[in-house]
Amino acid sequence: MDNYEIVAFYRENESEISNHAEAMSKTYHLQLRYEKIPELSTAIFTLLDEQTVLCLLDRTVFQFRKLLKYVYALNKPMMLVHPNDSINAYNHLKIPIGYLKENKEKVIWANFFQRNNPNSKIELVVPKEKDENIALMVNNNLEFIEKIFQNSNASYSKSFVEGSFEKNLKRIFQEEEDSIVFIIRPYRIFSIFIPYNIRLFRKYAHTPTMIIPRDEKLYIPCH
Length: 223
Description:
CATH architecture of the largest domain: 3-Layer(aba) Sandwich
CATH superfamily of the largest domain: HUPs
Number of helices: 6
Largest sheet: 9 strands, mixed
Strand content: 15-25%
Order of helices and strands: EHEEHEEHEHEHEHE
Structural class: alpha/beta
Oligomer: single chain
Number of domains: 2
Radius of gyration: 17 Å
Distance between the termini: 6 Å
CATH topology of the largest domain: Rossmann fold
Helix content: 25-40%
Strand order of the largest sheet: 2-1-3-4-9-8-5-6-7
């Protein structure tokens, strides 16, 4: 566990990201390494290794479309932060539960973080979907998620909220409550296309957001 690391990327100086990087490293007992972000987004993966569990990047260092090139070039989760985001966010893991099966990956990561810091709080936010089929898929995901937590003795809370997953994701981003919000990186057919959930993040997010790639081969720490 002690060998797992966070890689914090900076453009000009480590101070761009150091407050957030050091706060998360300390909170979750992870090694911290700084790297200058490469000029080519496709080169970013060469700076990672098997012990890298997460990357951090200040969302203001590039224009948003260029920033997404780095997010989509990675096979590791990327934490995007704003200089105004509170470092108190790192003890609160907020997980909006959706209907896609990939939502389960968010919870495995949250479980890993709580294992590293039992004082961290996991909160599941479950939408009350109107469509019966979508509601059933959400419920199936929730049952799977709770089994993971129960089998690992994880501590968590859950709340049920009116509206669709997307409407609640927008509301979560708009909230002033300090937390890490976990979202799955959506597919996109063209590089110029910005998926809806990412557009919600761009416009409304006021807190660190962890974007997790969809990848069956994704290395997820289990210790």
